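Marked as duplicate of an earlier ticket. Keeping the data here for the record.
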Amino acid sequence: MVYFSGKFVPEHEAKVSIYDSALMFGDMVFEMTRSFNKEQFKLRDHLERLYASIKYVHIPIEMGMKEMEEHVYETIDRNDPLFEKDDEHRIMINVSRGLLSLYQDVVGVEKGSNIIIADFPLRWTVASMGPLYDSGINAVIPSQRAIPASLLEPKVKNRSRMHYLMANIEVSNYAGENNWALLLDPDGFIAEGTGDNFFMVKDDRIITPEPRNILRGVSRKYIIEELAPQLGLPCIEKNIELYDVMTADEAFFTGTPFCILPVTSINSMQIGSGKMGPITKRLLDTWGQNVGVDIIAQIKKFGLSKKPGVVNAPSPYSFKQGK
């Protein structure tokens, strides 16, 4: 069941009009959350960023953050009986402006903004990622650059993501396996992945790109403000060049579904030992201890599940050409 602008509807009936501003302009902001042991993680942080995005793009909604939070938990309660006992709740909140004015009162669709809250088993999001904790990701620098804040504010989590998709399409033609895009900003500095933030480790210091031209991830914030201090590790934001990554001791991506994944090479050049580094492992293990879940074991277990539908298709992190 999906919360759709004031009512719950079956998932297959949760549809946005072809005349919605989201389809016409990519005019939609969103957030995705996950649970640990079915307890939502950093939900308020996600909602605060969502409401900042709504404010920035001037989408008029009357629902306050507290009410939004209540609807999230109501959505979880309605869907939990359908989930497997060991599954986690991946919540997706989408907010669109609604019908363009040209079509209002003409096409028989209720006008006004759309607030859509969907619940999806986390296992299907991360089912293919378990092996990456062992092999690591090969980060590939595509020709597609990150869009800077002067052109389209990346700190707003929005659905105008064609540049991410083009980066993934380009990287899909790169030789080898486990290739994920890592974008540079217009000045040639490392920016972000296509749905994840980047970190590297050098001389026991955790380093991540300056937050000017990136989406400031909730997982990224958790590393900087909580996990690194908990472990007594310095974490700094600075401009990172490709050379810095090539000579790093270790590197990793962060993202809500998978938390941390090791980056063991860049453009097929090995980083550090070519395996998950010790500091990356400490961060991931501590994260798991804090939430009471063995994150690697959980995701690997999810990978043993039979995945529904066709998997040879694009994901938020990579692109596969359908047959």
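See parent ticket for discussion. The chain has two domains: 2-126, 132-302.
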